[in-house]
Amino acid sequence: MIDLHSHTNKSDGTDSPRELVNKAISKGVSLLGLTDHDTTSGWQEAVQSLRGSISLALGSEISCLTTDGISVHMLGLLFDGQNKEMQIMLEETRDGRLPRMRKMIEKMRAAGIDISMQDIEAVLPIGATLGRPHLADALVNKGVIKSRDEAFQGMLNNDSVFYVSHAAPTPEEAIRMIRKAGGVAVIAHPFASLRGQILGAKDFAALVEAGLQGIEVDHRDQNSDERAMLRVIAKELDLVITGASDYHGSGKLNSLGESTTAPDQWEKLESLADQRRVVGV
Ligand code: AMP
Ligand code: ZN
Ligand code: FE
Ligand code: FE
Asked: How many Å lie between the centroid of ligand 4 and the Cα of residue 61?
C-alpha cells in the first residue's frame, strides 16, 4: 500500500515521526511519503525509526501562493534534503508564518476573542512549522471552539474574515526548486474546493511547463466529480496520478492508507527523480 502524503508534529500533525512510521507499519503501508509543511526536519527521526519492509519517500508539502493570491500546496518528494536553495526557500516560508499568525490573532482580539501568542506557544511542538491548526488548538483550549475541524469550517477557513496569507513561493517557483533539487513535483489536492478558491483546469499547462509531474487525485477533500476532472487533466498532460491520506494524526479525520497510489503510477513517478532516493532499512 502506497500512501504518499502525511504529516507529523514537525508541522501540524500530532504524531512524532517515529509514531507515524510505527502506525504506517501496523496499517500495512509499504511506502510512506513524509511531507510535513515547509520543512524536512522530521526526515532523520523517520529514517531512524524504519524497520521491517516499509520504505520512505521523504519530502515536504510546500505552501505556495499564486500571483492571484490562490493558496496551492505542492508536494516535493525524493529531493536532496541538503540542497541549500531548497532549505532557504522552506525557511523563508516558515519565517513568514510568525507575522501571519500575529496578524490573525490581532484580528481575533479586535473581534473580542480572548487569544494570544502565548496560547499558541503553549500548543506548538518544539520546532514545528506554525500553522492554523495550532491556532485552532489554542482556541479549543480557550473554549472558543470544540475542534480543529470546527475551526476550519468557520473562523479559520480560507474565506474567513480572520484569514491572512503568508509569504510563499509561487507554484511554479516551488516546482522548479523541487526539480533543481532532484525531486519530483506533485500538486496536492488541487480541486479541494471546500478550502476556498482553487485553480482552474487551464492553470495546469503552466505548471507542467515549470516541471510538474503528478497530480494528487484520490484525496478525501476531492469529490468524485473533481477526481474525474483531474484524471482527464492528468491524461491530457501525461501526468502521474497519485492518491494519499494526508494523515495528520488525531488532528484530522484522515486515516493512514485511506487513499493510495497505484504501484505503476509510483514506478513512473520514482523514475523521474534524478537518482534513487527511496529509503528502506
Ligand atoms: P496553514 O498552512 O497554516 O494555512 O494551515 C492549513 C492546514 O490546515 C492544512 O495543511 C490542513 O492540513 C489543515 N486543515 C485544513 N482543514 C482542516 C480540518 N478540517 N481539520 C484539521 N486541519 C485542517
Ligand atoms: Zn496540514
Ligand atoms: Fe495540503
Ligand atoms: Fe497535507
From this structure: 6
Distances from the Cα of 171 to the Cαs of 135, 174, 195, in angstroms?
Answer: 25, 5, 17
Q: Which atom in ligand 1 lies closest to the alpha carbon of residue 61?
A: 10
Higher-confidence residue: 196 or 234? Answer: 234
Ordered alpha helix ranges (H), the chain: 17-27, 43-48, 84-110, 117-123, 132-141, 148-153, 171-180, 204-210, 224-236, 263-270
Domains plus CATH for the chain? 2-95+167-270 (3.20.20.140), 100-153 (1.10.150.650)
Amino acid at 178: I
pLDDT tens, 101-147?
999 999 999 999 999 999 999 999 999 999 999 999 999 999 999 99
**188 CA from centroid of ligand 3 (Å):** 6
**Residue 85 above 90 pLDDT?**
yes
**pTM, full prediction:** 0.97
